[in-house]
Structures are given as C-alpha cells and as structure tokens.
Design a protein that fits this description.
Chain A has 268 residues and is mainly alpha-helical. In chain A, 78% of the residues lie in helices and 0% in strands. Chain A has one domain: MetI-like (MetI-like fold, Orthogonal Bundle). The chains are: A mainly alpha (268), B alpha/beta (267). Bound molecules: adenosine-5'-triphosphate and magnesium ion.
C-alpha cells in the first residue's frame, strides 16, 4: 500500500487568516446594523396585525370577495395578459441582438460589448414602474405605455441571461466553423443559437411569468391593465372587490407559471 | 501555373512538382517561450505526411500557424499557391475554406442532426440561413451532404442528433463536414486521440483514402507509432522547435522514431 493511504483526515476548517476574519466582521456588522435600522419593532408589528383583523379591519372587510363585476374585471385581466405577452415578445426580440453584442466572443468590438452591457444593466436596474411613468409621458396613459415598459424591462432581463448562455456555450464548434471561413452571422445562426435554444426557451418562459406579474402592477401608475381597477377599488374602500381582483390576478399568475413550467419540463 | 518555388520529389515518381505547402523560416514564440525556432520544409501534393513530436513540442502550434489560427512570429507559409501571411482578412477566409481541419475533438454542434452538421461545412463557400441546418438547405446542398455522409459510412444516420452518436461516429461526421468544404488540403490534429484503437484505425484509413482516391494532401499529427508507419508517405519529426527528422516512411527506422513519442520513450 502507498503511504498516502495512512495519512489522517485533513482539518475540517481552513484557518481564516486576517483578511478572512476582517471580512467576516464587516459582513456581520452590515447585517446587524441593517436589521437595527430598518426592521420593524416586534410590538408594532403585532399591534398592526391585530388591527388588520379587527371587526372594522381591512382583512375583515375583504370577506367575502365581491365578484359582482366579474365581466369587466375579466376583460381587464385579458388586457393585462395581452400587455404581458406583447411586451415580453418585443422585449425578447430586441434582447437577442443586445445579448449578442454583449457576448465576448461574438461582439465586434470591446467598446460595443461594454456599451451593450451598460444598456442591458440600465434597463434591468430601473424598475418597470419607473419605465411605465416615462412611457406614459411619451405615449400617454394606457396599455401602450405598459407594453413598452415591459419590453424595456425584458430587454434587461433576457439580454443578461441570453448573453450568459452564449458565454457558456462550448467554443469548440464555433472555432471549428470560424476555421473554415464561416461568417460571424453564420457562426451565430448555426452553432451558437442551436446550442443555446434550451436555455433561451427557459429564459423566455421566465420572462413571460415576470411580465404577467409585472403587468398586473403597471395599472397602479396608469399604464393599462387590471392594476387600475385594483387601485380604484382600494381608493373607494371597496375592499371586497379588491380582494376579488387579487384572487383573479393570482389565478392568472399561477396559471401562467404552471403552463410555462410544464412547457419547460417538456422541452428540456 | 507558377514556376515551382522549391521543387520536392513526389513519392510516386521522380517528377518535379510544385509543392502544395512550403514553409520557410517559420518561428513562433509565446512571450519568451520559443516554441518553433525556424522551420523549413515543403510537401508534394497528393501525399500523406505524418507530423510527430513529444508533448509540447509545438505540433499543434505549427498546424495552427499554417492557416493563421495562430499568427506566426516570423517566416513564410505558402500553401495552395497562396502567400498565407499576405492575405487580407477576407482573402484569408476564402483561403481557409480550401483547407479542411480535423481536430482531436469533433467540435460538432450538439442538439443538431448529423446532416445539419455536415451542411455547416458549406459555409466555406455559401452564407445565410440556407446553410445553418438541413431544414433550410437547398436540394443540391442536401444531396451533396448526403454524399459526404455516405463517404464516411453514416448516410443511414443522417437525422440522428450528433450527441446520440458514438465518439467514432462523431469524428466521421466531422470528416464529412470537412469534405462538404470541398477541401484541397487536409490538416488533422490527432484525429484518433480520443478514440479506441479500432475506431482510431478506421478514421485514419478514411483520411488516407481521401489522399489515395481523391488526391488530397494530408498533414496529420500522430501520437501512435503504428499509425505513423501505416498511414503516411513521409514523416516529419519536431524536436526543440526544429525539424529533427524528415524521411520517407518506408525508410524510417523504428528506433529512430521512438524518441518522438513520449509513451514509447518511457516504455
Ligand atoms: N496560446 C498559447 N499561449 C501560450 N503558450 C502556448 C499557447 N499554445 C501553445 N503554447 C505552448 O507552446 C508549446 C507547444 O504547444 P503545442 O500545443 O503546439 O504542443 P503539441 O506538440 O501539440 O503538444 P501535444 O502533443 O500535447 O498536443 C507548449 O509548451 C504550450 O504550452
Ligand atoms: Mg497538440
């Protein structure tokens, strides 16, 4: 037998070192100070919750949900779904070129790559409600502003994940095609996109789920969809109708998530 | 035809022919490491040449320098009648289309069919979605790709996804893709390295068949002594960044070859 077989097991934990301990302290200080500064006081929380369930409280008034306006609400729900699908579709279409430009191996120039990454990061960082307000200024109140907001948000979301998928593909087939003189577009079309198809599909379905959730909220600022009705119901203290709207939104989101999960499992 | 640059003796007869590849004073350094230190050799067309050398002796680097996948530090490469170093990016693409390369790894696009992968070879001369996959390809292209697949004995697996094929089958699809290029010169970097001996042998036979039957020229990096002896007309040995051995295969002595193979030397 070789002598390495008789060595004792190594220590469980590596010695941290000065930087290790310092880093640990910094993280701990960050967590503790953040909790102290922003977390709610427990007694306040308990009192608040009790108020919510009191006889005249919000939750009590929500029951039973009022489905009397189910017709108009359903139409607005459909509009919400349509906004999500349209915005998501446009976003995915435009995300692809941005992602290609942001990918190391496919970008024509490092400057272009950095610019594309910056745009994607900006689109992703600014919340979709802010985009909605911007587009309301441009195209006015209504679903068009919502669609554009969802589109920009999706370019940020899908652009990032498309680019990551393309970075992670095996460079071998791409190099082999480059070596026979294939064009950049040919390499993308015949080697990169086919290899990324499962991951692109998964990302697209997640984008759709995210769009449906997002589009329900966009109405709060007037960018179309069911959110307007929710806001109005709250403003008029129609809490039972608000609850009905919330339940229907929940049903839509769950249905879309289940459907997209099912497709994802089928495809991958 | 141009006047012969530096004539070499063709293996079959004693006719003087223009070499298909002429390398002069080729050097390549990575930083301070001199990998190739001045290579000079010429290859006659229609021959199989084995390139041998220990691990890290610069065989792959030499192969890549020939088509400028790696830029040489200095020296000249003349191949298929073209001064490779002087080619513009566009001309280089057209030149590379004429050179088929078989890698150690097959480098096929997974999730696509064998036929689609072979059709990708047509990107050497065509562009656009028509050569991205078999579904969009025009009939003549599909027919030619099927002929290439038949050439490597895989016509019956045309629609099989390549990730469902064995290593040997994949390497043969890669060779079919290379044939789809209509190459005039074949470079092969250990095409048999990741295959079992039997399959590796078959792949080497396939490549030699292209030389014997189609008159293509082949430069193949070999890491097996028996393949070197069985599948080449001429042997070039790399050592210390120079051509340390250059002789017709039938004159080669096995003991002299051994030092170019790590595992043989160790044995
Ligand atoms: N891109 C690179 N950058 C730096 N050094 C490199 C690079 N490519 C190759 N080398 C070095 O050049 C030397 C020759 O490498 P090369 O791959 O050509 O050898 P090889 O003869 O093909 O070896 P093997 O039999 O292992 O395939 C090695 O020392 C390697 O580390
Ligand atoms: Mg090598």
């Amino acid at each position: 037998m070789s002598e390495s077989a008789t060595l004792p097991a190594p220590p469980r934990f590596r010695h941290l070192g000065l930087t290790g301990y310092a880093g640990f302290l910094v993280v701990a200080a960050l967590v503790v100070s953040s909790l102290a500064a922003t977390a709610p006081a427990p007694d306040k929380l308990v009192n608040g919750l009790a108020r919510l369930f009191a006889p005249s409280g919000l939750f009590t008034q929500m029951f039973p949900p009022d489905f009397s306006r189910i017709g108009p609400i359903s139409w607005k729900l459909l509009e919400t779904l349509q906004m999500a699908v349209a915005g998501c579709f446009l976003g995915l279409i435009f995300a692809l070129p941005f992602a290609i430009l942001a990918t190391d191996r496919l970008s024509p120039h490092p400057v272009v790559r950095t610019a594309a990454r910056a745009v994607i990061a900006l689109f992703r960082t600014v919340p979709d409600l802010v985009w909605a307000i911007i587009f309301i200024i441009i195209v006015g109140l209504g679903p068009a502003a919502g669609v554009l907001a969802i589109m920009v948000d999706k370019i940020g979301f899908a652009g990032r994940f498309f680019a990551e998928a393309m970075e992670e593909t095996d460079p071998g087939p791409q190099d082999a095609l480059r070596a026979i003189g294939a064009s950049r577009l040919g390499i993308i079309g015949s080697a990169v996109l086919p290899a990324c198809l499962p991951s692109f599909t998964a990302t697209s379905l997640f984008a759709l789920e995210k769009s449906v959730r997002g589009s329900a909220a966009l109405g709060l600022v007037g960018a179309g969809g069911i959110g307007v009705d929710l806001k109005v119901a709250f403003d008029l203290f129609n809490y039972d109708e608000a609850f009905a709207i919330i339940l229907l939104m929940l049903a839509l989101v769950v249905a879309v998530e289940q459907g997209s999960g099912w497709i994802r499992r089928k495809l991958i | 035809m141009n006047a012969p640059v530096s004539p070499v003796r063709a293996e079959a007869g004693s006719t003087l022919v223009e070499p298909v590849l002429t390398v002069s004073g080729l050097t390549k350094s990575f930083g301070t490491a001199e990998v190739l230190r001045g290579l000079d050799f010429a290859l006659a067309p229609g021959q199989s040449t084995a390139l041998i050398g220990a691990n890290g002796s610069g065989k792959s680097t030499l192969l890549r320098c020939l088509v400028r996948l790696v830029e040489p530090t200095s020296g000249r490469v003349r191949m298929l009648g073209q001064e490779v170093g002087a080619l513009s990016p566009r001309a280089l693409r057209r030149f590379r289309a004429r050179v088929g390369i078989v890698w150690q790894k097959h480098n096929l696009v997974p999730r696509m069919s064998a036929l689609s992968n072979v059709i990708h070879g047509a990107q050497a001369r065509m562009a656009g979605p028509q050569v991205w996959g078999q579904a969009l390809a025009p009939a003549p292209v599909r027919a030619e790709a099927m002929a290439c697949l038949a050439r490597v004995g895989l016509a019956d697996r045309a629609l099989a996804r390549v990730d469902s094929l064995s290593g040997g089958q994949s390497q043969r699809v890669a060779i079919a893709r290379m044939l789809m290029q209509r190459p005039e010169f074949i470079l092969a970097d250990e095409p048999d390295a990741s295959l079992d001996p039997q399959t590796g042998q078959e792949v080497m036979e396939l490549l030699l068949g292209l030389v014997r039957q189609d008159g293509l020229s082949l430069l193949v990096i070999s890491h097996r002594l028996e393949h070197t002896l069985a599948f080449s007309d001429r042997i070039l040995g790399l050592a210390q960044g120079r051509i340390a051995l250059d002789q017709p295969t039938r004159e080669a002595s096995v003991p002299a070859l051994r030092r170019f193979f790590d595992h043989e030397a160790a044995a």
